[in-house]
Design a protein that fits this description.
Length: about 110
Amino acid sequence: MEDDKKTIWSLQHNKRKPEERDQFKPTGKTKGSNSVTYGLVAFAIIFVVSLLLVWMSPKTLTTCFTDTYCISSNTHFFGYALYVAFTIVLIILAIMGAYIVGKKLGERFKI
């Protein structure tokens, strides 16, 4: 009578072949880091947003780096968009740096 109540733990009732069982065994390869890919995709998104910002601006924007070298949003469209993208990245990095410094100071002083 106990043979009738025997529990079968395999959900497939052993229907899988050995090749199918071995399909998901670890290969021993380490998974690569995707940090560079994520960084490039994030910068590409920021660059597209900066292109849209420059394109949607109703007036001509001009920025001078030195007294003799200035870029305009009409004449150097992609250059000005790149300038805006680098400015956005710089602001994001400054916010991240301030957060990290504040976190370290908060851990050190434990108010």
